[in-house]
Amino acid sequence: DLVESMEVTTSILEVEPSAVELMDRMLIELTRQQPGYAAQIANITGNPEAVLAVEFYGETDEELRDKVDKLEYHLRQKGLLPHAPIVRVFDAKGQTDVWTVRKAGLGLLMSIRGDAKPIPGIEDVSVPVEHLAEYVAEIKRVCADYGTVAAYYAHASAGCLHIRPLVNLKDAQGVRVMDEITRAAAEMAHRFSGVLSGEHGDGLQRSELNETIFGPELYQAMRELKGIFDPQGLMNPGKVVNAPPMTESLRYGASYQTVPIQTFLDFSREGGFARAIEMCNGAGVCRKVGAGTMCPSYMATRDEKDTTRARANALRNALSGRMFSPEELLGPEVYDVLDLCLSCKACKTECPSSVDMAKIKTEYLAHHLEEHGVPLRTRIFANIHASSKLASKTPKLANMAMRSPVAKIAMRKVGIATEREISPFAEETFEAWWAKHVARRDARQATEPRYTRGQVVYFHDTFATYNYPRVGRATVRLLEAAGYEVIVETRRACCGRPMLSKGLVEQARGLARQNVFHLAPYARQGIPIVGSEPSCIFTLRDEYLDLMPGDPDAAHVAANSYMIDEFLARVAATEDLGIEWRSEPRSVFFHGHCHQKALIGMKASMDALRLAGIDAKESGAGCCGMAGSFGYEAEHYDVSRKVGEERLFPRVRTTPPETTIAIAGVSCHQQIEHFTGRRVQHIAEVLAEQVQPGHVWRPGVGKAQAAD
Prior knowledge:
single chain, alpha/beta, Vanillyl-alcohol Oxidase, Chain A, domain 3, four-stranded parallel β-sheet, 34 helices, 15 strands
């Protein structure tokens, strides 16, 4: 119980911890829903209304364990343990996880969908710890009287709880509720000998109530002091004294309205396009550097304009007409703010509020193209599958043409960075190799018993088909080594990712429908769809649900699509893969794709590498900076390089030459080789090379079934 947890706090303080922090049920539930944070509260089981994180300092592990033992004994003596079971966290990672979630509390709370948000106002009230339980009980009652609830978290040991009632500030009633709850909390703070601002300051939100807290005599003295040092009221006006009403200067307010947008993508889960943008609460986690992936453009430029927050602010202010007029939404100023978004999807996971700026940018670009037309360069990049298919018919001629001076002139003319090399076309496409492979397989199986674990569809992407068929061959080798009969659906189309990245949503939707039509029959039978290009597979899993909302076949395809390494790790988690691996030692430096890191994380890749007996090290770097066609665009070339130089390239350069540099996506492949000169291999190639030569999967390993 929340109130009981505050009562327990006073007893906990008797054993002198360094901190006692509160996390309530709302924060815990929202954290569990956030992929980037869910694993960090794995120690919390059940559905508690409140959790207290109690911290002790000590010189040794023994000292720390003694202090926790003392706490447990103390609470047991007071009869409090049945209500407050203790989970001990002594490892550094576990401790970091607890504090990461607590510190991300505001952002996580703001990930609540809808217009009612956990608002500030009373979030900094501090009262003596002995009055915390009474104060919390009264706040709960006041919120209930107004038909709402509040989020509770933060510094219980200091009597400073960050309490945020859920209120919709977009309507007049919500503004009134905020005002009245804040005034009620101020009265309570005064009654319990507390203050309105324990650590965050008064600001425009609370300064109006300082006379209530300090009394008229002291408040007048504060006004006079302000007048002596700032007679013109120029320094931070409206703060502490002489403040305007708290109902002014609101981000939203009763007059807030946005221009209705008929969207190309489905934003029903977010509550509409405007609400998807409004998920940003301004916490600024996107300004971090040296860790994670979000936000790669900010890490490169260190310019606020290039943060997720700035993009959300620009769009919100344009939609509402506050900074830009709605007519300027598709103009150069707003476009420029979104221009350096690499659509890495990191904000979808690393932002505590799960702002999906990649999706928002796709929607924005669709409207921009509708208004201004489709440039030639956009058409070239969006239709790379069709052009690659054409070039592959005469690969030698195509490769020669791409290396010619005329090609460089053409690249410069359309705005493609001439420093880049276009990936060469293979002499034999993957589909050509596949036809021969199937013929050999069928001939061999005509005279031998044929056993299989089951069937798997390989979704061969554009680059694995026309540029790097060795990746496709390696993927097939791995699946067959694990006992699967591989199906290659040659009627499949481009996944649509190149079009989505440019805003050509309707073209991408047509491809999605085509792919779902051909892949859904397999998915409905439970036959996995496995790919080797993250941007393609995660388009099937993520964007197809927005391109074809409510379509059960699209949902089946999304739920049954996997990366090759992810699929192998998934199978190995429940049964023996049955692959004979080489025993020779091998070390690998692995850099994951941004979409992979954002949507499923790196664990599956690392597990797959270790299954093969590889000494694998994750790069720990953020975005490589290529982002599909972004790094090929002349005006983005330097930023693309800076993104990679932030962490990835230096780590690649210092990796020993005997260590393999492995990647999951073609963009990372192109970028690392271009800027570091190191040879790169796809993770499927690395794993396939680890399969023992001559290995053939046999029944009796895993779950075998005879094939027809």
